[in-house]
Amino acid sequence: MNSENSASSTVSRRRFVAGMGALGVAGAVGGASLVGCSPKADDGKKGKKGGKGGEAFDIVIVGSGGAGLSAAISAYDKGVKSILVLEKMPMTGGNTNYSSSGMNASETMFQKEQGIEDSNSLFAEETLTGGHDTGDSELVKFMCDNSGPAIAWLNDLGIKLDSITLTGGMSVKRCHRPTDGSAVGKTLVPGLLKAVEERKIEVRINCDAKELIKDGDAVTGVKVEEKGKAYDIAAKAVILASGGLGANIDMVTKYRPDLKGYVTTNQSGATGDGYAMAEAAGAELVQMDQIQIHPTVQQEHSQLIAEGIRGAGAILVNSEGKRFFNEMSTRDKVSAAELEQPGGFAWEVFDQQVYDKNKAVGNYDKAGLVVKGASVAELAEAIKVDAATLKATIDTYNAVTTDGKADEFGRDKGLIAFAEGSMYAIKVAPGIHHEMGGIRINVKNEALTASGTPIKGLYAAGEVTGGIHGNNRIGGNAICDIEVFGKNVGEVVATALTK
């Protein structure tokens, strides 16, 4: 166990919330072709009647988050038209809907336009270092090398991510967000769904994949259920893009008993179904105990507070009004440091400049998560910390921002002096955020057995896979993961099927 676990007892009293977040997206976003889950007659282009009252498609994708939708689009554009996307929830997008930081990527068109010097090798090095050198170096290199082209691909789809900022553990601005600095998920999911709709790819909501169908060693379809009715859907290839397990406390505590009582940032459909299905079909699960907690979660609403706010200059102070750690360090280290503070929480403090640069803050404010003050003294009174101490903390921080050196905690990125005027704070503590382990894959997204043998017909992408992030995920790398490997798996499968 790492240091964050030793302090976990301080939050054991917190309820586990499998919530949608204070700023959740309601309904199916973007108007894609959404239908209820039930067998359909042969329509020629899409599904054809299969055995046992089901249907047959070339590709069945389980999950309609960023990885699943990207796989569908890229496979279609590579020539496969018989594609079905299954979504067990009544809304599409999965956890991608709630992604707030952005998409890390290197050597991108937008970095070059803005004069930001970066390299794929540096991105890979910092990703591996951030994961404490426990990630799969081949997968990490593949992700980083293909991140720039993925940004360009999204741009071609009309999804422009040209506002670039820092996240913890990165030394270069490479976290790409929408132009207005808003949460990336609210641009990414509607953009991908629009592309799906334009291609007339079928997405079925309320359609729960329960089990993979096998013929010998090969996966040949999926058993699904709707309103208690079960039937089969045959497929030449099945892509699992079913997301994580953060909303399933039984599965969370199976792998990490110390996380009992934590809130979760995950949407309620993140129940780990894909792990169970893949394992039952012979796939190896790796690093499943590596469940990341995020340091800045507003506890009452289980709302993740975007990492870009710290990257833009925010600081963390404890109940005494004092800074205690490098806010731009990796998530595991910041979380552990928070849990060591009185009460196991922190106040994320920022000024009007940060408020204005991050559109997400306005949404947090509307949801009632932000405490305000017209000055440092007023904010201190509102959050019940000593005003003189908080002022001294901010004065010390401001002084460091002018000398070009790292501060006393080692922070040397995102050091931006606070301006006079309005001040803001959000009360935060760690929450369950991301399963970094999962299905073992290779760079072809093939699901692998424990011996490293690909399972014919079974592929996986996104949070359901393991090995990329190691035992700590860098903020902004999840969207990179789902986009690079989501796009890749669609192309790989389409190429295999159209040979």
UniProtKB/TrEMBL annotation:
Q: Does the keyword Transmembrane helix apply?
A: yes
Q: Provide the FAD-dependent oxidoreductase 2 FAD-binding domain boundaries.
A: 58-478
Query: What transmembrane ranges does the database entry give?
Result: 16-35, 56-76
**Keyword flag Secreted:** no
Q: Which UniProt keywords apply?
A: FAD, Flavoprotein, Membrane, Oxidoreductase, Transmembrane, Transmembrane helix
Q: Name one Pfam family in it.
A: FAD_binding_2
* Gene3D superfamilies in the cross-refs: FAD/NAD(P)-binding domain (3.50.50.60), Succinate dehydrogenase/fumarate reductase flavoprotein, catalytic domain (3.90.700.10)
In the record, what terms sit under GO molecular function? Answer: FMN binding; steroid dehydrogenase activity, acting on the CH-CH group of donors
What does the record give as cofactor? FAD
Matching entries from InterPro entries are given as: FAD-dep_OxRdtase_2_FAD-bd, FAD-oxidoreductase_2, FAD/NAD-bd_sf, Flavocytochrome_c, Succ_DH/fumarate_Rdtase_cat_sf, TAT_signal
Q: Which NCBIfam families match?
A: flavo_cyto_c, PRK06481.1
Q: Which PANTHER family match?
A: FAD-DEPENDENT OXIDOREDUCTASE 2 FAD BINDING DOMAIN-CONTAINING PROTEIN, FUMARATE REDUCTASE
The UniProt similarity line reads: Belongs to the FAD-dependent oxidoreductase 2 family. FRD/SDH subfamily.
- This chain belongs to the protein called Flavocytochrome c
